[in-house]
TrEMBL record:
It comes from Anopheles atroparvus (European mosquito). This is Ig-like domain-containing protein. Residues 30-138 form the Ig-like domain. InterPro entries: Ig-like_dom, Ig-like_dom_sf, Ig-like_fold. Keywords: Signal. Residues 1-21 form the signal peptide.
Length: 275
């Protein structure tokens, strides 16, 4: 019986549920990985596939696939072999176990790219049997900038603006005023050649609709992950500087303070002269 025929029999055996010569017992693929672009030596992304296999099995091979395309292969008698865009992104010297049929089962990805998001499948097979398990992973690229601001546009209205730059995957933005969701325009997004997104939302309301002070928040979230960010500022009404909630003292208070300082200085000079 040749190798191809054996593999076909093995696949048929698995479909019928009649074979268990090799079996995946645990797939370790994290749901998210936060990519730190500022670090020169970030921690590798480790994908591990734990399985049981009979030492007497012949023709053992392990494969990792991303969205159905092979990215890594290991045969115990050979060195691990990364495919395509993973060729310079996998540490082939990484060892997860000293056991002969488990040594290089894990794939250690060095500096993952944003487009490494997807469904990862581990396939283990011999001439007699095959098993497969898959899990989804999202590579998160932290935004380079996340800002919230408001300004008066001169006609009795205030515009609130929130934007984030260089982030992936595509996030959601939401503006709240005093913890209530604020109606805004639809999310605007632009994807650059690097695959990262610039996103923004904004909305306008009349000043008489805003209490003073009012808390303004912008919430950023990446769907199906626990990645969340928040920015906040405070609106102080008509007698405050309407830029990022920064306020200044009213003019009369500043003037009174200056006059008091002058009087104190004169008294000190007069007292010194008498002494």
């Amino acid at each position: 019986m040749d190798r191809r025929t054996s593999m076909k029999i093995g696949l048929l055996c698995v479909l019928l549920g009649a074979c268990s010569a090799v079996k995946i017992i645990n797939l370790k693929v994290p749901p998210t990985y936060l990519l730190d672009q500022t670090s020169k030596t970030p921690d590798p992304l480790i994908l591990d596939c734990e399985y049981e296999v009979d030492e007497n099995e012949k023709g053992f091979v392990l494969k990792w696939l991303l969205d159905g395309q092979p990215v890594y292969q290991w045969i115990p008698s050979k060195n691990p072999f990364p495919f395509q865009s993973f060729k310079n992104r996998v540490d082939t010297s990484y060892v997860v176990s000293q056991e002969h049929l488990h040594k290089h089962r894990a794939m250690a990805i060095i500096k993952p790219l944003a487009n490494f998001t997807g469904e990862y499948s581990c396939i283990v097979q011999t001439y007699a049997s095959i098993d497969r398990r898959a899990a989804k992973l999202k590579i998160i690229v932290r935004e380079s900038k996340f800002d919230l601001s408001y300004y008066s546009n001169g006609n009795g209205e205030v515009t609130v603006d929130c934007h984030a730059r260089d982030i992936s995957p595509l996030p959601k933005l939401q503006i709240r005023i005093n913890h209530e969701q604020f109606a805004t325009e639809n999310l605007k997004s632009v994807q650059g050649e690097n695959g990262l997104y610039n996103v923004s939302i904004s909305g306008t309301l009349r000043k008489d609709q805003l209490e003073s002070p009012a808390q303004i928040e912008c919430l950023l979230a990446i769907p199906e992950t626990n990645y969340n960010k928040r920015r906040s500022t405070t609106y102080y009404g008509f007698n405050a500087t309407e830029s990022n909630g920064a306020s200044s003292l009213p003019v009369p208070m500043r003037t009174t303070t200056s006059l008091l300082a002058t009087v104190v200085t004169i008294l000190l000079i007069f007292t010194t002269t008498l002494l």
